[in-house]
């Protein structure tokens, strides 16, 4: 479609009562062409309900959603500008990729000559005669995305697009979505992964109990996550837990906030702030001198779960919705 002006999506004072004690309320944001907004929330705090309101599948009690100047409630017209992918969607058992896409494109009145262009876009040419259910998780998800964008929508909406995928498949999907964004498609997606925010998002909207608690640029949001840090994992901290803990505590007293000793159960590790990484060699030498060996050293980024706990005081899982 790609026919509307720069502002693709506008959500104004949106509200919907979902139960006697839960409602979405006063949600507002806008999205321009080629921009992406990430929805972040704990499970059951309104992400999927908000997505259904944006797509026009559910009507709000208050406020409005406009897509390319059209009310989302005007489904017959607004849907021409939308591509929507649900979190879970099954595929038919016996259809080949080419058969499945041809059928889906016909339903969406996509010109036949676009088939070659689209399957090349998704890098699925070599799988045309493969059963759709035999594809990898990443390629199955690409198939869903391809169908959703075949009619060239202005807005692509994805409910946790990488849920259930392995690391390789996640990278494939994120790369594909990034490419679509560069072509001018605007994107709304829900996620629990901070790396997806960094790779895709321009804006971040945080929901807590149905309320919009934060709307910021992705850079502002990520800055609240904190700086990267070095994580030093110990090879065998259980050999002498008391000695290990005492040695690390003594070291921490000498260097203050330069490093932090943390434990998960009986397992200890050390975190060194990014700006203090020049003490790494001294830390390693000290540990060696007291007989503590390291298993690994690697850079870590604060997890999205940490900022969610800070913003709402509630837990959020990073792997599922």
UniProtKB/TrEMBL annotation:
Family annotation (PROSITE patterns) = ABC_TRANSPORTER_2
* InterPro entries in UniProt: AAA+_ATPase, ABC_transporter-like_ATP-bd, ABC_transporter_ATP-binding, P-loop_NTPase
Which SUPFAM superfamilies does the entry mention? Answer: P-loop containing nucleoside triphosphate hydrolases (SSF52540)
Q: Which GO terms describe its molecular function?
A: ATP binding; ATP hydrolysis activity
- Plastid: is it a keyword of this entry? no
Listed A to Z, the keywords are: ATP-binding, Nodulation, Nucleotide-binding, Transport
Q: Does the keyword Nucleotide-binding apply?
A: yes
Residue ranges annotated for the ABC transporter domain, each copy included: 9-234
UniProt similarity note: Belongs to the ABC transporter superfamily.
In Swiss-Prot or TrEMBL terms, this protein is called: ABC transporter related
> Which organism is this entry from?
Shewanella woodyi (strain ATCC 51908 / MS32)
């Amino acid at each position: 479609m790609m026919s509307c002006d720069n502002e693709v999506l506008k959500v104004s004072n949106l509200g919907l009562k979902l139960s006697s004690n839960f409602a979405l309320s006063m949600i507002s944001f806008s999205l321009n062409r080629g921009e992406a907004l990430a929805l972040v929330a704990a499970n059951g705090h309104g992400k999927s309900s908000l997505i259904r309101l944006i797509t026009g599948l559910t009507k709000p009690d208050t406020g409005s959603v406009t897509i390319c100047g059209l009310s989302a409630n005007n489904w017959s017209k607004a849907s021409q500008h939308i591509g929507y992918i649900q979190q879970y969607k099954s595929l038919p058992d016996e259809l080949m990729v080419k058969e499945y896409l041809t059928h889906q494109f016909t339903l969406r009145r996509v010109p036949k000559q676009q088939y070659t262009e689209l399957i090349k876009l998704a890098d699925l040419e070599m799988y045309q005669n493969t059963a759709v259910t035999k594809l990898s998780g990443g390629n199955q998800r690409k198939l869903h995305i391809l169908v959703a964008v075949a009619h060239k929508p202005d807005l692509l909406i994805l409910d946790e697009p990488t849920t259930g995928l392995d690391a390789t498949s996640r990278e494939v999907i994120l790369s594909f979505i990034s490419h679509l964004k560069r072509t001018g498609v605007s994107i709304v997606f829900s996620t629990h992964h901070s790396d997806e925010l960094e790779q895709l998002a321009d804006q971040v909207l945080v929901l807590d109990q149905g309320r919009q608690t934060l709307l910021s640029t992705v850079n502002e949001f990520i800055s609240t996550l904190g700086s990267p840090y070095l994580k030093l994992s110990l090879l065998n901290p259980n050999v002498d837990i008391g000695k290990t803990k005492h040695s690390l505590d003594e070291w921490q007293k000498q260097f203050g906030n330069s490093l932090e000793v943390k434990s998960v159960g009986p397992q200890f590790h050390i975190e060194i702030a990014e700006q203090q990484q020049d003490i790494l060699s001294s830390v390693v030498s000290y540990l060696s001198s007291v007989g503590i060996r390291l298993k690994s050293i690697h850079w870590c980024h604060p997890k999205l779960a940490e900022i969610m706990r800070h913003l709402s005081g509630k837990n959020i899982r990073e792997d599922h919705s």
